[in-house]
Amino acid sequence: MLFDNNKLDKSVPIPLYFQLKELILSEIKSENYKDGDMIPTENEISDEFQISRTTVRQAVTELVQEGWLYRVKSKGTFVTHPKINQDFLKKLESFQDQMKRLGMKSSTSVLELKKVKADAEVAKALQIKEGAEVVYLFRKRFADGEPIVTIKTYLPANNCSFVMEHDLEKEALYEILAQRDDTKIYRVSRTIEAVEAEKEDERLLNLPCGKPVQYFISVGYNTGGTPLEYSKARYRGDRNTFEITVFTE
Fold this sequence. Notes:
Shape: elongated
Strand content: 25-35%
Number of strands: 10
Distance between the termini: 56 Å
Helix content: 25-40%
Largest sheet: 6 strands, antiparallel
Number of helices: 8
Oligomer: single chain
């Protein structure tokens, strides 16, 4: 399939490689070419538009560099999408605010919200007794309608039960917790691990089993150093990249 017989305008001063690049990008964004689809070869594109292979190569190379295409040696050039640059490792920011800053539309689906008994893992993280009551919040989050992460969050029920009165599909959890001084999150400790996608990831994130998942464990503390949030997040490895800044002493 060649780009719906769209033609390049050789009478305007816009470089042909740039016109071709925008045409290919338009085809990708309109999903005429989807993730994993192979685009026509350089020879096919060159013949279709009667332009040089050098012009085609320049357009394709820039789309590869920008993350819209990738090459496989001896096989061809395939469609992908740029990864979402997650920089929440550097600052505390709501998912909604981060996606807005990146020019993407965010949405959240609450899969479960209930009170449960803390198991040994949760109790240790929140520094509470095993079996103590906690608020359990399970969310799936989207960027431009695409699922990118699932998050399981645990909050001590004795001082965080009020979050259950809020619409957690529209309100940010940290903003809700910040309504009270004793539950406002001031510091977060995170660990990151690379794991393989499981059945739940396949079902909720459209990610085949065995594909990479970026697994985050977070503990959020109030100003007094008391842990108030324990979260386990699973990010699609094919759609996210994470930015970390390190300062020398």
